[in-house]
Design goal:
The chain is α/β, with parallel strands linked by helices. It has 3 domains: 137 residues, no CATH class; 121 residues, Rossmann fold, CATH 3.40.50.720; 193 residues, no CATH class. The chain is built from 16 helices and 11 strands. It has a 5-stranded parallel sheet, covered by helices on one side. The protein has a two-stranded antiparallel ribbon with strand order 6-7. Strands 8-9 form a two-stranded antiparallel ribbon. The longest helix has 37 residues. The chain is flat, with a radius of gyration of 31 Å.
């Protein structure tokens, strides 16, 4: 019910904004023709096209928004400014694209550049005043939902902001049922009895909606609450606190008629997303292997001949997706037969030959991994693959360490562009890297992928201090 009210009010609000834009445009046209263009005639066909394009731009912008309907009742000036600016740019942008494409010079530049700031101001004022005005007109006393809370006062306190916002759409908090020895909550919500008193309170107060403040454990009292709500025709909402109980974020989804709860979103489980990611890998890795890799092979080989003769490549077994092992290629930057290969490289490590330090700082030693990318063992972007010994060590430190293996390992990653690269000196370094890796796999999108790649190129030009 709450989401339907919010969704409906949001759509009505957008419709009013579209009408406002159209009305403002025609009013501006009338002012221009009447006062600034004497003898000019109103060309309905042309101006109708311009108006339609403005409305079309507004509509497309509203469809591209994600979750704005959850915030449009909040009077946050910065958010309203951003939304108004986006709407202004989208609507006028659609008109400008049309004018350029058709080489239309009919519209007055003076009118256009005066209309744009007024459009922004009108949209900003509409964001600030219109939602509350519409809510007051639609959700009158007859449409009010008398809401009863059931649970602890602490849970009611957590819901304080939500209850205040939803009062705009007719939710009226009548009181609280709790076993706590209090008269009212910190927010002034009166205690009306214990949970066992639900039948009496609902009848006496004319309650139309009950909100359970925590996920029910299906005790006898909770079954009684559900039964009373059904018998008396009262809406029942349950606040999901599974994240608090599980101490982990959760995601809800439905598949083939069943409802499931998962611990995280995984955008790269979508085959289309994987195709986009694979296409980026091939488009970048193939030219590197054809044109950059051969030149670097010669340069590194000459440096090794001068300072540390031995094999050109260093091959190690690393753990990849789902901990499947694969051989990773790197240009050798350490002296051969250097002892403990599992020991992490450190600043001023005496195992690294002089030019090898430069190769590591500029990440030249990682270039052969583009071959691993073409083979499909790795990706351009993803969690860095660690040695098998390090995986065992780090997984003991962090219970969710192996979650990072849900996606392919990468040449670069979110952790690396944020500065978490090089030697992991302490537990905090590992925790920060794993947190970035999990954030990447839970929030993957094309803009994030491309952003990491661009930031990596920037760091090749100006290497961070942690690169050694």
């Amino acid at each position: 019910m709450v989401t339907q009210r919010t969704e409906g009010l949001y759509r009505l609000f957008l419709l009013c904004q579209i009408i406002l834009v159209a009305a403002l445009f025609w009013f501006g046209v009338w002012v221009m023709v009447t006062f600034y263009s004497e003898g000019a005639e109103l060309t309905w066909r042309r101006y109708s096209i311009y108006c339609i394009l403005l409305v079309l731009g507004m509509t497309v912008e509203s469809l591209s928004r994600d979750g704005s309907k959850n915030y449009f009742l909040q009077n946050e000036l910065l958010r309203q400014h951003r939304l108004s600016l986006r709407q202004t740019l989208a609507s006028t942008g659609a008109l400008v694209l049309y004018l350029i494409a058709t080489q239309d010079t009919f519209i007055s530049r003076l009118f256009f550049f005066n209309f744009v700031p007024w459009l922004y101001v009108a949209l900003l004022f509409s964001h600030y005043y219109l939602p509350s005005f519409l809510a007051r007109g639609i959700f009158t006393q007859q449409r009010a939902e008398k809401t009863l809370l059931i649970g602890s006062s602490e849970k009611a306190k957590q819901l304080r902001g939500w209850l205040r916002r939803k009062s705009e759409i007719g939710l009226r908090t009548v009181g609280l049922l709790s076993d706590e020895p209090i008269e009212q909550t910190e927010d002034g919500i009166p205690l009306l009895g214990t949970e066992a008193d639900i039948d009496r309170v609902v009848r006496e107060r004319g309650i139309t909606q009950v909100i359970l403040l925590e996920f029910p454990l299906f005790s006898e009292i909770n079954r009684h609450i559900i039964r009373v709500c059904d018998q008396l025709g009262v809406r029942l909402l349950i606040v999901s606190d599974l994240e608090e109980k599980l101490r982990h974020p959760v995601t809800h989804f439905e598949d083939d008629g069943f409802r499931f709860i998962g611990l995280r979103e995984e955008p790269l489980e979508n085959p289309l997303n994987r195709c986009f990611k694979r296409a980026i890998d091939v488009v970048i890795a193939l030219p590197v292997m054809l044109f950059v890799f051969p030149v670097l092979c010669i340069i590194v080989w000459l440096a090794q001949r001068l300072q540390s003769p031995g094999p050109l490549f260093h091959v190690q077994t690393r753990a990849g997706m789902q901990n499947r092992q694969f051989p990773i290629l790197k240009f050798r930057t350490m002296h051969p037969h250097n002892g403990d290969l599992a020991r992490q490289a450190r600043e001023n490590d005496d195992r690294i030959y002089p030019l090898g330090r430069l190769f590591r700082k500029l990440s030249i030693d990682e270039v052969p991994q583009f071959w691993n990318t073409l083979k499909g063992d790795m990706s351009i972007v993803g969690p860095r693959p660690h040695l098998i010994e390090h995986n065992t060590q780090f997984s003991r430190l962090m219970a969710n360490y192996n979650v990072r293996t849900f996606v392919k390992p990468g040449i670069t990653g979110l952790a690396q562009v944020r500065g978490y690269r090089g030697e992991a000196r302490n537990d905090s370094d590992i925790q920060n890297r794993v947190a970035c890796d999990i954030e990447y796999l839970e929030n993957w999108n094309l803009s994030l992928e491309c952003g990491i790649i661009l930031r990596t190129f920037a760091q090749l030009i100006v290497p961070p201090r942690s690169a050694y």
